[in-house]
Amino acid sequence: MVKNAEGKRFSLASGITANILGHGGQLMLVENTFSKGAIAPSHQHPHEQVCYIVEGSFEFTLETQKYILEKGDSLYIPSDSIHSGVALEDSIILDIFTPQRDDFLEKVK
What we know:
It is built from 1 helix and 10 strands, in the order E-E-E-E-E-E-E-E-E-E-H. By secondary structure, the protein is mainly beta. The protein is globular and about 35 Å long.
């Protein structure tokens, strides 16, 4: 069990704070807090990912498709897919990864 206040926080990019709320085995849960206008630059990774919008709204690009996601929406990102996003307002996203992101765990050691 992890209380939100006890999560492992780190800066993911300018205006984005990541908070690792749970991990083990092949799964990881990360809460990302975005300031309006914060950009998750184009990237890819071998992990599968599901994004769930807790608060706010985002413009996501997945490969060549653009999506506007709002509170309650979700998006599946396949392994090695190129993706990016921009917060259209102050927002919170929950990301679930499999396998877990060892690169994130390295940031909070």
